[in-house]
Amino acid sequence: MPVSVPTPTAPNPQPIDISLVPSPCFVLEERLLRRNLEILDRVQKATGAHIICALKGFSMFSTFPLVSQYLKGCTASSLYEARLAYEEFAHQDAQGNLHKGDIHAYAPAYYEDEIEEMMQYCNHLTFNSLSQWERFKPHLEKYEKKHGKHVSAGLRINPQYSEVEVDLYNPCLPGTRFGITADKLETLPEGIEGLHFHTLCEQGSETLARTLEEVEKKFGHLLHQVKWLNMGGGHHITREGYDIELLIELLNRIQKTYKVQVILEPGEAVGWQTGYLVASVQDILDSEGIKVAILDISFTAHLPDCLEMPYKPKVWNASEPTPNSKYVYRFGGSTCLSGDYIGMNDFAFESPLKYGDKIVFDDMIHYTMVKTTTFNGVRHPSIALWTEENQLKLVRHIGYEMFKYKLS
Predict the structure, then answer these.
(1) Helix axis angle, 244-258 relative to 205-223, nearest 10°?
(2) DSSP character string of 322-341
(3) What is the pLDDT of residue 310?
(4) Distances in Å between the alpha carbon of 314 and those of 23, 274, 293, 317, 383?
(5) Are the beta carbons of 75 and 266 closer than 8 angstroms?
(6) CA of 363: how far to CAs of 22, 276, 319, in Å?
(7) H helix or E strand, kind and range, residue 53
């Protein structure tokens, strides 16, 4: 039977005014973020599953008052991410009551000198190995006895199945650091309340369906013994064309079959297509017949995913060059690194570029912002919001202090 859920808010037809945006600057549109959150909340309402925000993909905490109105909490990959969630992820209801979200954490290794603080912030901890669980189980028991707070423990499992094609992002390659294979987990250790797998990367619910077949085949006998199942991130739920109805069907089936609370922890799906990186042309030069536009950003420092993946970002008002294109440019960054440029072909424009022209890189909020560096001491992009009232709100100007104080 179809589930009655609210439809996402219609996009605002009024585009943002790029001329008001300082350069360089990351800009998130609040209306686009709300659109994604409403899609994610539709899944929550139709299934009862919990969707939490993976901070490794989206950590723009100035938006957390909005995000926390829809999502159940955050998932952290480190002590600092857990602390950020604890300090910032909360919202006030109409009566003025403050509501903090659930905080989950997973890391390949936890540290003796951090585990107690992790437990202060988190209410779920997933352990990467049996040895990590055995080492830290006494810490959890001691913390609960001392503070009266129960931290639910889980194990990351490796179903040895992934359809991720890029090795850099494939967590199930032979020799992976991530998770426990079925041959090493015949029974559930005492004290473990959940299981966690993460094998997707920008993939659809069809991939999740095939992955669940492997998870159930190898770990189904353990699913009947746990309270929760965390299906990790990589679910491209907010992408156009994603089969949400299939996802709803899968989550409802798993929860009904195993009587577990399902948790999803997307980061990219939260920030997907919510904003831009605005740069500007600083110089144009001819390099052996190739026109190079030098920008006030760095690709290695500010768009590292473009070089790691690699992929070619979308640029407003630009197209793929053809033999008939008159104005073709290669974009170069502002550092001294020779490879600080987008190498996957160039960009064609309908008119020539000139000094000061704004260049807008689309979809640059998820993952891009969390990976930026201060290499070469180059100027870091500011961070801004384009509010739902169609106003530019500069959230942060990042200056010299950020560069200096990460050094010694």
Answers:
(1) 0
(2) -TT-SEEEEEE-SSS-TT-B
(3) 84
(4) 18, 13, 16, 9, 20
(5) no
(6) 18, 5, 16
(7) strand 50-54
Residues paired with 203 in a beta bridge: 235
Determine the residue type at 406.
K
CA dihedral (203, 208, 210, 212) in degrees, to 10, reads 150
- Per-residue tokens: 341: 């440029």
CA–CA distances in Å: residue 310 to residues 123, 344, 345: 36, 8, 12
| Whole-angstrom distance, CA of residue 57 vs CA of residue 272 | 10
Rounded Cα distance, 262 and 253, in Å: 10
Burial 154-172 (b: 16+ CB within 10 A, else e): bbbbbbbbbbbeeeeeebb
Residue type, 180: I
- Among 315, 302, 305, 308, which residue's Cα sits nearest to residue 380? 302
pLDDT band for position 10 (cuts 50, 70, 90): very low
Average pLDDT value for residue range 334-345: 88
Rounded to the nearest 5 percent, the helix, strand and coil shares of the chain are 30, 25, 45
Q: Identify the band that residue 14 occupies on the pLDDT scale cut at 50, 70 and 90.
A: low
Q: Which residues contact 89 (CB under 8 A, 6 or more apart)?
A: 53, 61, 64, 67, 68, 73, 74, 100, 101, 103
For CA atoms 69, 75, 81, 82, the dihedral sign is positive
| Residue keyed to tokens 């990042």 | 398
Cα distances (Å, whole numbers) of residue 183 to 157, 158, 180, 219, 270: 11, 10, 8, 10, 35
**Residue 356 Ramachandran class (φ > 0 left, ψ -120 to 50 alpha, else beta):** left
Confidence of residue 13 (pLDDT cuts 50, 70, 90): very low
DSSP structure string for 262-324? EEE--SHHHHTT-EEEEEEEEEEEEETTEEEEEESS-HHHH-HHHHHTT-PPPBTT-B---TT
